[in-house]
Amino acid sequence: xxxxxxxxxxxxxxxxxxxxxxxxxxxxxxxxxxxxxxxxxxxxxxxxxxxxxxxxxxxxxxxxxxxxxxxxxxxxxxxxxxxxxxxxxxxxxxxxxxxxxxxxxxxxxxxxxxxxxx
Length: 118
Hints:
Elements: H1 15-21, H2 24-43, H3 46-63, H4 69-80, H5 88-96, H6 100-116
Helix pairs in contact: 1-3, 2-3, 5-6
């Protein structure tokens, strides 16, 4: 006899779980991208791995607490009104335990990688 869990957590990569976790304004975009990749996977087996990667990335995104667009706009207004800010290099240096110069270099590299991926 095997022991089965009484309550099994839903798979975070399940498209329905992802949609339910996303903010309303991101759902249509996710679904259109999901459908595109699912159709590609149905036509070509190599598309299946791309679909798995896509679902993995979006499952992480869906589980990450992000501010709403209204919260972002409110914060922008606060900053424009003079609210204190912290340079990204300082945050990275503190989080990674590296110098501010190394953090600046690390950040530039990440920005370049993101730009190339578009």
